[in-house]
Design a protein that fits this description.
The chain is an alpha/beta fold. The chain has helices at residues 9-21, 32-41, 58-68, 83-92, 106-114, 122-130, 146-156, 161-168, 172-185, 191-200, and strands spanning 2-5, 26-29, 46-49, 74-78, 96-99. The mean pLDDT is 87.
Length: 215
């Protein structure tokens, strides 16, 4: 089930029709409050979320959803192109960010998200990559263990926790333990923050960012 969060009725109806015609079971919400209620009643496979909601800021909705179930990918679909707003949503935990002008990319983006990827409009991806230019002038001692770096590399490439456990041949709870340790050491609250921090600190190479997952 896909949860569609969009306050404009015409836009919501058009997107829902597109998704249902493509085989998705869709539950829709017109506000942040209703979206959180639906999310808590039954966790969806993926959330498609507009930022400009009438009651709760979209980034705050993302943050609340990720606090309750970090395994559910949240993809922003918005007209907002402000760098600060885009980064705020991604730092809140959104896995991807599509501009409504790129609506033709929606179906492939959802498939990518469900496969563990992090779909973004090209302009948004360039913005995120631009954040990696601020590198420390001198390398610092490594904060992560070798196994934690392996987990972080696979987080950066878009693998899910289950896929990481499979590729590293460890238990799923072991992956979760490593991720918690990575977040703590890198002072991060989301996958994106941890990956960006890892690249900036030289813990992992930037080539891992959005690399093609290898299973």
């Amino acid at each position: 089930m896909l949860l569609l969060v969009e306050d404009d009725a015409a836009t919501r109806g058009a997107i829902q029709s597109l998704l249902e015609a493509s085989g998705y079971a869709v539950r829709s919400a017109a506000s942040g409050r209703l979206a959180l209620q639906a999310f808590r009643q039954k966790a969806p496979q993926v959330v498609l979320l507009d930022l400009g909601l009438p009651d709760i800021d979209g980034a705050e909705v993302v943050r609340s959803m990720q606090a309750e179930n970090v395994e559910v990918p949240v993809i922003v679909l918005s007209v907002v192109t402000s760098e600060s707003r885009i980064l705020e949503a991604l730092r809140a935990g959104a896995l991807g960010y599509l501009l409504k002008e790129d609506l033709g990319r929606l179906l492939p983006a959802l498939a990518e998200a469900l496969d563990g990827g992090a779909p973004m409009s090209p302009s948004v991806a360039r913005l995120v990559l631009g954040q990696l230019h601020r590198r420390p002038s001198q390398p610092a001692p490594s904060l992560l263990t070798s196994r934690e770096r392996e987990v972080l590399e696979r987080l950066a490439s878009g693998l899910s926790y289950e896929q990481i456990a499979l590729t590293l041949q460890v238990a799923l709870n072991t992956v979760r333990t490593h991720v918690r340790s990575i977040y703590r050491k890198l002072d991060s609250a989301t996958r994106l923050e941890a990956v960006l921090a890892g690249v900036k600190l030289g813990e992992i190479d930037r080539c891992w960012l959005f690399a093609e997952p290898e299973l």
